[in-house]
Automatic annotation (TrEMBL):
Keyword entries, A-Z: Cell membrane, Membrane, Transmembrane, Transmembrane helix
Entry keyword annotation includes Transmembrane helix: yes
Source organism of the structure: Streptomyces tateyamensis
Protein name: ABC transporter
InterPro entries: DUF3533 (IPR022703), T7SS_ABC-Transporter (IPR051328)
Length: 432
């Protein structure tokens, strides 16, 4: 019986030309379909969350403070602060805003913990100042104060300020209608009647200030993004470099190609090796993120030891998740992990556009997507004095859940493959 022919090694003179291969449909089909699907899904995900925040409002938390002591107006004693608070709540579309009617101290606590995006405050002398407008005792126009909370993000704070300013303006016009129709207004001049028609001054102030070097409340988001990218990129680099070092992937640097001898190692031990290296690298990447942002760029930050520990754990959780996904899905694992940690995580993070201002699908993702949990923890440390109820406690819990889930999923999948006898690659010697 004739021996099998050795594998063909085409000489350079017999190399296939690209023009010939371009006529093969299958070379076009797979990358075209994958690129089209990924592009379409990314476009729908990213733009779908920001197109219409005003139209998607769902229980946006805002505080209302009525400190008005009341006074006597034509017709008897009144408390216009109650009227303002009631009209503000009634004027918003059903389900769009979750109004918290609290006192001044409670409102300040809600702002300081990031639980509300802003507040509308009616002062103690509001009715008295309104009453004085119809007399010669007026010294200043009554005011309603709109408090912003830049620590929850510039867009969320701005959106809330606009809602509060509109509500305060509508309340002013309603009060003005009462004043101009009162008998006492008939004896006033045209200038006074114009003042009475819109009597309230709306003042906007920062309710819970943050540092000047905080990116208008966006530094927490970008810092979180750096942590996620560090864990994601670091995990994939470890995955590729370990496979190359163990002989399960080719090494190419420019025109140079090599293949190392294949090391006889199982899937589970390979995953354990990759996760251990990922943990070591996370110490470096988390530290460098802090050095770059705080020491070099001057980002405002406090609780530095806590911030470093949180940064390391965040990078580690993402990196372990990447390793688990790559171990389970193989060559498409990087695409899967990109969707888990980047594509689905960014629009559902709530760090740029509040989750209360995005479609319900993103609010659902925000319940478990990692960037939402991590950004809440970073925001609590940077802006809200590391308060547990500002999102830090939940962030720690979800980091722990993520680490456990990555370990369980990754090692269960590798053990399953090994029990099925599914080897990664037949051992090969090194090329000459």
């Amino acid at each position: 019986m004739a021996s099998p022919l050795p594998p063909l090694r085409p000489s350079p003179s017999h190399q296939v030309r690209a023009a010939v291969l371009l006529r093969r449909p299958m070379l076009w089909l797979v990358p075209t379909v994958l690129a089209a699907l990924v592009t379409l899904v990314l476009a729908l995900l990213y733009m779908g969350g920001i197109i219409n925040p005003n139209g998607q409002l769902h229980r946006l938390p805002i505080a209302v403070v009525n400190a008005d002591a009341g006074a006597t107006l034509p017709g008897g004693p009144q408390n216009l602060g109650d009227q303002v608070a009631q009209s503000v709540v009634a004027a918003s579309p059903a389900g769009s805003v979750a109004w918290h009617r609290v006192d001044q101290a409670e409102a300040q606590d809600l702002l300081a913990s990031g639980k509300v995006y802003g507040a509308l405050v009616v002062p103690a002398d509001f009715t008295a100042r309104v009453a004085a407008l119809t007399t010669t005792q007026a010294t200043a126009r009554p005011t309603i104060t709109v408090l912003t909370n830049p620590g929850v993000g510039s867009l969320g704070s701005s959106l809330t300020a606009q809602l509060n300013q509109t509500a305060a303006r509508q309340a002013s016009l309603a009060i003005g209608k009462q004043l101009t129709t009162a008998p006492a207004a008939a004896a006033t001049d045209s200038t006074t009647r114009l003042l009475l028609a819109d009597p309230v001054t709306v003042v906007t102030q920062v309710g819970h200030p943050i540092g000047q070097h905080s990116g208008l409340g966006l530094s927490a988001f970008y810092y979180t993004l750096l942590l996620v990218l560090s864990g994601f990129i670091g995990g994939n680099l470890v995955h590729t470099s370990v496979d190359t070092a163990l002989g399960y992937a080719d090494s190419e640097f420019g025109p140079w190609h090599s293949r190392r001898p294949t090391v006889p190692i199982g899937r589970t031990q390979t995953l354990l090796l990759k996760m251990a290296i990922t943990a070591g690298i996370s110490l470096v990447t988390a530290s460098l993120v802090m050095v770059a942002c705080i020491a070099i760029l001057g980002m405002d930050a406090s609780h530095l030891p806590l911030l470093w520990l949180f940064s390391f754990c965040a990078c580690l959780a993402v990196g372990l998740g990447v390793q688990a996904i790559n171990a389970a899905f193989g060559s498409i694992g990087q695409l899967v992990s990109m969707f888990v940690f980047i594509a689905l995580a960014l629009p559902s993070s709530g760090a740029t556009v509040p989750l209360e201002a995005v479609p319900g699908f993103y609010r659902f993702l925000g319940a478990f997507e990692p960037m939402r949990q991590l950004s809440a923890g970073v925001r609590a440390i940077l802006y809200f004095d590391a308060r547990a109820d500002a999102g830090l406690a939940r962030a720690w819990t979800m980091i722990a859940v993520g680490v456990v889930a990555a370990l369980l999923f990754g090692f269960l999948m590798t053990r399953y493959y090994e029990r099925k006898g599914l080897r990664r690659l037949v051992p090969q010697p090194a090329e000459d």
